[in-house]
Every structure is written in structure tokens, then in C-alpha cells.
Design goal:
The protein has helices at about 65-85, 130-135, 200-225, 230, 235-260, 275-305, 315-325, 330-340, 370-395, 405-425, 430-435, 440-455, 455-465, 470-480, 490-495, 505-510; strands at about 5-10, 20, 30-35, 40-45, 55, 95-100, 105, 115-120, 135, 140-150, 155-160, 165, 175-180, 185-195, 340-345, 350-355. By secondary structure, the protein is of the alpha+beta class. Helix 6 (about 275-305) runs antiparallel to helix 8. The longest helix has about 35 residues, at about 275-305. It is elongated and about 100 Å long.
């Protein structure tokens, strides 16, 4: 029946103490089976003596800590073999696995389409929480994990194909749910595996340093632009400030994660807790907000340098903020509530956390929700910004300034092109290729990704402040280091608009915006970006 059957087994090595679950039982069962099949035969074996395999071994004897030490030694030897063999594919070591539960041989007869057999099994050896089952080995993070598997007699191997393993890593001493699409001989295996392939410990330190510099650069950018009333009233400056604030919040949340969340679950925020879920959703939301502001930045550059005429937008900041902060809110909510679910087997519940990662408070990589709710919007934002980048790049290439030499003009065009690329977040395009499974390739791409994107706040400071004559002149005049320039409409156009042309004309005054200085008309002379 759909309600299933359950068994209680105090000692996994003594089946004489096996009892079927029923009303009045207060303890969690050791075995639970649920299926839509009308008939079922179940054979329970204490071990894998009838299922020989070269890949599995008996769990070593001794105390819990001694068993873990033995597992770590096996894994260390495995990685040393991998390093020594190098690219020799014929000498790949066999990963050591342990049959870590009773073996259930189940036959339900004829299987209907969409058949799913749900098993709840308590492992014999409890791997413990992340403080005990996770270790750092050189640049690798490895963890002892449970794995649902079935026995293939033809190959004499245990395979996990067709079986989904679910267990709460916060409660690893409870049980494991195996959801399988067939019936055969099942067991819970245990193996120490590498997690986050391509992870390099040094990357965390570099990320923290670069993000710290970005946070400082963003705070400096906001602090230096806001007091400049003549600059901050322009539409481009308003969007730049909003983008900088969103990037600042996202960067602070990311860098604080290293302090509040630990991969061994010893941090202030516990992994996969309610607090971790809130932190994950907040980070997910803020990075999507950053992506939205980069698209708005690209759209603004397009209006300023490409289209210009007929580009008036009423209440533009209200609409921009509604888009930037309103659209992304759906994604983290949908991700958490759609991909965090409870799996019930004969009354036993196990939480399946498909939204949150296991070792940090962020989206779980490689899952449907990661690709659909984070990676997908990122790719879409990159594609849109690449279109804007190409259109703006044409204007930059065609820009002329008779007062500059060819070399100076080329350097100015290159500066503008790099600035546009960074501000539009096109460096995130590297993230698309970081899903290449080869660890060596992942590490190389990760370094590029970290250096470019973790430094984005510093690039913002360079292009919004250091290379912005309007901001520099304002503060030089404010500090009395430079005489104030005479005010004029033509002068304003070259100092208050970040996307302005080198000169203005009568046509500028007839522009659809309230101030010709804010959005001058497009001309052949577009060198002063």
C-alpha cells in the first residue's frame, strides 16, 4: 500500500530482533518501504556476503573515530595515486566504498510506468556532522557521504544509476531515503568523496582580499559622487549610484559569509538552517539585483550614445528601481519553496534541501534551481549587455577628436571600451564556462573569474571617480586646489554627463530631456565618454 511498511532493528547484525512497525511505536524505524505495488517480497540480509564486488570493502572494526581515520587514509592514498598516475587513464584507482547498511532484496513483480520505490534505511556507521565528516586535503575538500546503490549481478558492481540519495546533512545520524525506479538488491554505501571539484583553498583568500578592495572602492565612489550636486542630479549618475549600492550590499553579504558560515558547520549561522535559508535567499536576490542594474546601465548607455532622440522616459528612476528590485524577488522565493521539500516514507520524513548548498549559504551548484533561477538570468543579462556593448563599441570606434593624436585617441577609446565592459558586468561571461567538468580547466577559469569580478568595485571607483574629470574637478575646487571653472551650458555637457559627447549644439537644447547637459545629441564626435 502507499502507506508502506516499516521495521525496527536494534542491532543490524542480529535479525532475530527484527520487528515490524505498528501503532504505538515511538521510535523511528530502522527500515521503511513504500511503493504503489500491490504485492511485494522483501529479503533482509545483514551484509553483502552474497554480493561480491572489487569496489567495496568491509567497514573496519574499532571505535567510530578509528573507522573515520581509516576512511581518511583510504582517500588520501586514492588522491596520491591520482596525482602519481597523472594523465594515465589506464591506471585510475578504484574508489573505496563500504556497504553501510543491511541489504534489502525487493521484488514487486510487474512494474507500472513511472514506478518509484522509496526506501528509508538507517546506516550502520554514522558519519557524523561536518565537523567530523569533512576535511581539507591540500587544495581539496573531501567528505564522507552516504550513497544509495543497487547490485548489478552482470558486472558484479554496486551502481547508483536510477537511485536518488536524500538525507539531511544536518542530521546525518538519522536515516537515508533511496528513491529508485526499479526493484533489485539495495543498500546504503559509504565513501569519502571530493566535493566542489576545482576548489582551491587559496582562492578564498584572494577573493576576500579583492572583495575587501571592491567594498572600499564602492564606498569611496558613493561618498565622492553624492556631495557633487551638479553631477548626482544627472540620470547616468543616479543609475551609477544605484548600481554601486546594490553591488556594495551583495559584496558585503558574500564576504560576511566567510565569517558567519563555516563549511564544518561551526559558524554563527548553521548550514541548511532557517537562518542559512534566509541568507541564501538574500544573496541570491542581491546578485540578481546587480545583474538587473548592469542591464539598466547598458540600456542607459544605448540611449545616451546610440539612440539619443525619442528616448525620453518619464519617472525613469522610479521605473528603473521597480525593475531592478521588483523582478528578482520572485526567483529566490520560488527557488526555496519549490526545491525544499519533505520526502515521506511510511510516516518517516526527511528534508530534501535542493535549494541550498551543503557547505555554504548559497545556491546548490549543479541543480535545476541553480541553472534556472541563477545561471539562466545571468546568461540572459550577459547576452543583453553584450548587444549593448557591441552597439556602444561602434560609437567608441567612430569617435573623433581633432585635438588628440592617433595614439592618444586609441588609448582613450580603449579606456572607454574596457570601462563599458567592466561596468556592464561582461566579465561574468566566464561563469558560463566554469561549468566545464574538467577540474584543471575549472581552476584556471575560476582564477580569471575571481580576479575580474571580485575586483568590479575597484573598477567602478576607477571609472566613476579616478577617470571622471567632473568628479575630480568638483573635489579639487571643493578643497581649494583648483579655481572654479566659469559656468556655461556647453561646459556642463562635458563635466556632468558620463556618457556625454565632446561638444553640444543648438540641437542639444532641443533634446527631449529637460537638460541638454544631461543627454546631448549624438554626433560624429563622441570621444569624451
Amino acid at each position: 500500500e502507499e502507506s508502506g511498511i516499516s521495521f525496527f532493528l536494534p542491532d543490524a547484525k542480529d535479525l532475530t530482533k527484527l520487528g515490524q512497525g505498528g501503532e504505538g511505536e515511538s521510535n523511528e524505524p530502522s527500515i521503511a518501504i513504500q511503493s504503489s505495488a500491490t504485492e511485494m517480497s522483501v529479503v533482509i540480509l545483514t551484509g553483502d556476503a552474497f554480493f561480491p564486488s572489487e569496489e567495496t570493502e568491509q567497514i573496519p572494526g574499532g571505535s567510530t573515530d578509528e573507522v573515520r581515520d581509516s576512511l581518511w587514509d583510504d582517500l588520501k592514498g586514492e588522491f596520491e595515486d591520482m596525482s602519481n598516475n597523472g594523465s594515465d587513464t589506464e591506471k585510475k584507482p578504484t574508489k573505496v566504498k563500504y556497504v553501510n547498511s543491511v541489504v534489502l532484496e525487493i521484488d514487486v513483480g510487474k512494474q507500472e510506468p513511472g514506478f518509484v520505490l522509496k526506501l528509508y534505511i538507517k546506516p550502520n556507521f554514522k558519519v557524523g556532522d561536518n565537523t567530523k565528516n569533512l576535511k581539507h586535503m591540500n587544495d581539496r575538500r573531501v567528505q564522507i557521504r552516504y550513497l544509495c546503490a543497487y547490485y548489478e549481478p552482470d558486472t558484479a558492481q554496486w551502481s547508483s544509476n536510477g537511485c536518488l540519495t536524500t538525507y539531511d546533512t544536518n542530521l546525518p545520524n538519522s536515516g537515508v531515503v533511496c528513491s529508485c525506479s526499479h526493484n533489485t538488491s539495495f543498500a546504503v554505501l559509504m565513501a569519502a568523496e571530493e566535493i566542489d571539484p576545482g576548489y582551491v583553498e587559496a582562492q578564498s583568500l584572494i577573493s576576500q582580499i579583492l572583495l575587501g578592495g571592491s567594498i572600499f572602492g564602492l564606498i569611496a565612489t558613493i561618498s565622492l559622487i553624492l556631495p557633487a550636486s551638479a553631477i548626482v542630479t544627472t540620470r547616468s549618475a543616479k543609475v551609477n549610484i544605484c548600481f554601486s549600492i546594490a553591488l556594495l550590499i551583495a559584496s558585503i553579504l558574500f564576504i560576511l559569509q566567510g565569517v558567519l558560515v563555516k563549511d564544518d558547520n561551526s559558524g554563527v549561522i548553521q548550514l541548511r538552517s532557517v537562518g542559512c535559508a534566509v541568507y541564501t535567499m538574500l544573496q541570491h536576490y542581491m546578485w540578481l539585483v546587480v545583474f538587473m542594474w548592469t542591464v539598466i546601465e547598458g540600456f542607459l548607455m544605448y540611449l545616451s550614445l546610440v539612440q539619443v532622440f525619442g528616448s525620453h522616459i518619464s519617472h525613469y528612476m522610479l521605473k528603473f528601481n521597480a525593475l531592478a528590485y521588483g523582478v528578482p524577488i520572485v526567483f529566490p522565493l520560488a527557488g526555496y519553496f519549490a526545491f525544499t521539500r519533505k520526502i515521506t516514507v511510511s510516516g518517516v520524513e526527511v528534508t530534501d534541501h535542493q535549494y541550498m548548498a551543503e557547505t555554504m549559504c548559497f545556491l546548490k551548484p549543479g541543480t535545476i534551481n541553480f541553472y534556472a533561477l541563477f545561471f539562466g538570468p545571468l546568461v540572459l543579462a550577459i547576452i543583453v549587455n553584450l548587444v549593448f556593448f557591441v552597439l556602444v563599441l561602434k560609437v567608441i570606434r567612430n569617435s573623433k577628436n581633432s585635438s588628440l593624436s592617433d595614439k592618444e585617441q586609441l588609448m582613450r577609446q580603449m579606456k572607454a571600451a574596457v570601462g563599458v565592459m567592466v561596468l556592464l558586468g561582461t566579465g561574468w561571461v566566464i561563469g558560463i564556462f566554469m561549468n566545464i567538468p574538467a577540474p584543471g580547466m575549472q581552476i584556471t577559469l575560476q582564477w580569471f573569474f575571481i580576479v575580474i569580478n571580485a575586483s568590479q568595485g575597484m573598477f567602478v571607483f576607477v571609472f566613476y571617480v579616478v577617470l571622471n574629470d567632473a568628479v575630480k574637478n568638483f573635489w579639487l575646487e571643493k578643497l581649494g586646489l583648483k579655481a572654479a571653472a566659469p559656468k556655461s551650458v556647453a561646459g556642463a555637457s562635458s563635466t556632468t554627463n558620463e556618457y556625454a559627447n565632446a561638444s553640444t549644439s543648438k540641437q542639444d537644447a532641443e533634446h527631449t530631456y529637460s537638460s541638454a547637459a544631461e543627454f546631448p545629441a549624438k554626433k560624429d564626435d563622441n570621444a569624451n565618454l
